[in-house]
Amino acid sequence: MRLNSLQPAAGAKRSRHRVGRGVGSGWGKTAGLGHKGQRARSGGYHKVGFEGGQMPLHRRLPKRGFASPTRDATAEVRLSDLEGMKATEIDLAALKAERLVARGALAAKVILSGKLARKLTLKGVKASKGARAAIEAAGGSVVDSAEKKSEEKKPPETKSQKAKE
Taking the model in full, what pTM does it have? Predict the structure, then answer.
């Protein structure tokens, strides 16, 4: 076999269908477009989904579902993934450093999947009920950022409270 002897298999290549080339070809005169009408004219054809003025199907059917733009903002982390980590204090930055969480993630949540045998502390990372129980059973603790904020911030005093003093 040589490069100059290569050719496609028999019947693999067919000649282009040429219309409007005389009555003898079978595709002369109207060239397969029929007589008159919008489809026979050059440049004249309606848009995709047009149903002659009737309300089109894509507008008759109700809208359904929702694509959340923040779906990937919270990442899931398994307990078995935490088992393999070197750090004992785990926060979002540590998870990103170990590449357990995507760089663009804004939050992370630990789920109960696998086993945890070592003591560790979660800071600013959410945990499911089962995962929280497993971490505490292993001697660790979970510190939520929401709990920290509520402890740090006290509600401002109202005018009635000031008047009582």
Answer: 0.51
Structure tokens at 160: 């009635």
Q: What is the DSSP letter of 47?
A: P
Q: Provide the residue count of the chain.
A: 165
Assign residue 141 the CATH number of its domain: 3.100.10.10
Greatest Cα pair distance in the chain: 107
Task: Specify the DSSP element, H or E, that contains 76.
Answer: strand 74-78
Share of the chain above pLDDT 70, in %: 87
Q: How far is CA 74 from CA 105, 109, 134, in A?
A: 6, 7, 21
- Taking a C-beta distance cutoff of 8 angstroms, is the pair 95, 129 a contact? no
Q: Which of 133, 91, 135 is nearest to 116 (CA)?
A: 135
Number of domains in the chain: 1
In single-letter form, the type of residue at position 59 comes to R
Q: 18, 25 in Cβ contact below 8 A? A: yes
